[in-house]
Specification:
Shape: globular
Strand content: 15-25%
Oligomer: single chain
Radius of gyration: 14 Å
Strand order of the largest sheet: 1-2
Helix content: under 10%
Distance between the termini: 21 Å
Structural class: mainly beta
Number of domains: 1
Length: 86
C-alpha cells in the first residue's frame, strides 16, 4: 500500500490541511479533529446542515488553530506542524 495524500482535519466539518508528514499522538495524527464548532446551546455544527462551513480554511501556526474565510480560487494551506523524522 502506498499513501499518496494525507490530510488532517483540525475542526470537525471544516476544510482539511494537506500534510507532507504527520506527527502522531496517542490518539492519532496530531491536531486531527481536536475541535468542533457548536451552537450556543452546545449542539455541534456540521456541513450537512451548514454547507457554508466548507468555506472556512483551517491552519495550524505555532501550535495554534487559525480559522480564516476561504478566498475564491485560493489554494489549500499547509499544516506547518514541524514534523520530524524518528
Amino acid at each position: 500500500m502506498k499513501v499518496t495524500e494525507l490530510y488532517t482535519y483540525p475542526v470537525k466539518s471544516l476544510t482539511g490541511i494537506p500534510l507532507d508528514c504527520a506527527e502522531l499522538s496517542r490518539t492519532g495524527i496530531r491536531f486531527d479533529r481536536n475541535w468542533m464548532l457548536v451552537q450556543p446551546d452546545g449542539t455541534f455544527m456540521t456541513q450537512r446542515i451548514y454547507p457554508q462551513m466548507a468555506l472556512i480554511n483551517t491552519a495550524i501556526e505555532n501550535d495554534n488553530l487559525v480559522l480564516s474565510p476561504r478566498k475564491r480560487g485560493s489554494a489549500e494551506t499547509s499544516a506547518g506542524t514541524g514534523c520530524r523524522a524518528v
